[in-house]
Specification:
Strand content: under 5%
Structural class: mainly alpha
Number of domains: 1
Distance between the termini: 44 Å
Membrane topology: Multi-pass membrane protein
Organism: Desulfohalobium retbaense (strain ATCC 49708 / DSM 5692 / JCM 16813 / HR100)
Shape: globular
Keywords: Membrane, Transmembrane, Transmembrane helix
Helix content: 55-70%
Subcellular location: Endomembrane system
Number of helices: 5
Protein name: DUF1232 domain-containing protein
Oligomer: single chain
């Protein structure tokens, strides 16, 4: 069993609305809570997120570096999309609660994928930048 079309539409709508509301406080929240959640799940990422796991970690690192002023070569709209996706991922309140075995992270995966579709080129540039350090 997966997400219904209605659940998918609601998750997408929330994600796109959240992008427009991201501010500086959300950068800190997403970077700290994102790191904490990834650390807690890193040995065994949820199945729905397994293929996206490295990208999720890269998104959180990007937010961290952007927030700290280390990397600013990314448009605000892309940062806002990445932040909105990470906040959705760490939030206990979403359309399919994370604690439901086998299903809990399906909506998170959808939102992360939407952000990756928007931020793909910028994440690739960020990864190249990280290699130069």
């Amino acid at each position: 069993m997966g997400m219904t079309q209605k659940q998918q539409d609601k998750a997408k709508q929330r994600f796109y609305e959240d992008i427009d509301n991201v501010d500086g406080n959300d950068l800190e929240y997403a970077s700290k809570k994102g790191r904490k959640k990834v650390d807690s799940l890193d040995g065994d990422p949820p199945g729905a997120l397994e293929k996206l796991w490295d990208d999720i970690k890269t998104m959180i690192q990007l937010i961290w570096d952007y927030r700290n002023g280390n990397y600013k070569a990314v448009p605000w709209k892309i940062i806002a999309a990445v932040v909105a996706a990470v906040i959705y991922f760490v939030s206990p309140i979403d359309f399919i609660p994370d604690f439901i075995p086998g299903l809990g992270y399906i909506d998170d995966a959808l939102v992360i994928k939407l952000a990756l579709d928007m931020a793909g080129e910028d994440l690739a540039s960020y990864k190249e930048w990280k290699k130069t350090l």
